[in-house]
Amino acid sequence: MASKKSEVNEGVRIGAAVKALREKKRLTVNDVAAKTGLSKTLLTEIEDGETIPPVATLLKLAGSFNVGMAAFFESGTEPETVSVTRKGERVRIKKRPHHHEGEVDYVYESLETKKPDKHMEPFLVEFMPMETTDMVFTSHKGEEFLYLLTGKLEFRSDERVEVLQPGDSIYFESERNHSFRSLDGKPARGIVVVWAKK
User: Fold this and answer.
1) Neighbours of 68 (CB within 10 A)
2) What is residue 79's DSSP assignment?
3) Where are the beta strands (DSSP E) in the chain?
């Protein structure tokens, strides 16, 4: 498990990657805000490493730069046709103790960080227990698949609620508002694969 210090450093690393990509594409913060629908304040906080963005926000940013999400995590290696990510190479992203608006409300690890042009984004995700009033709903272009490994997990969208047990899976169009929460007082863990339309 990553230390608190390294988790914060990952936020800084992601922010630096976002800023570098924006500058490489010769875009202003206003340009990126217009392309993604994200606020200028949030974008600045992400670039400064003050806010750790959730997957949906990173997908919007990747789309605006026309890159894959590996661009935020990759270690600078050359793209490969076969990519192996060892357990120790995964990047773990966790919310801070004092949660910022627009920040993650779950823990996620990118399971593939080397292939920049892939069509799917695989993650290991830990969903926290919370009240329904604390759930943060997100949406992004594309589709999403989740296979639950451990725990009891609730999926909510604007029109549907499903409870998942270990071994259950769910596949949905991620343009609909959606959120998850653990139901048994401890984190639920699952494999999530996201396909984002570009």
Assistant:
1) 23
2) P
3) 91-93, 106-110, 120-127, 143-150, 153-157, 161-164, 169-173, 178-182, 188-195
Q: Is the pLDDT of residue 171 over 50?
A: yes
Write out the two tokens for 13. 């690393």
Residues 6+ apart with CB under 8 A from 123: 55, 108, 109, 110, 111, 191, 192, 193, 194
pLDDT at res. 149: 98
For residue 51, pLDDT beyond 90: no
Neighbour order of strands in the sheet with 161-164: 161-164, 153-157, 178-182
Report how far residue 11's alpha carbon sits from residue 47's, in angstroms, rounded to the nearest whole number.
9
* pTM for the full predicted model: 0.70
**Cβ within 8 Å of residue 6, ≥6 positions away:** 92
How many CA atoms are closer than 13 Å to the CA of 68, on its beta-carbon side? 18
DSSP assignment string, 102-113 = TS-SEEEEES--
Strand segments (E) across 25-177: 91-93, 106-110, 120-127, 143-150, 153-157, 161-164, 169-173
pLDDT at 5 > cutoff 70? no
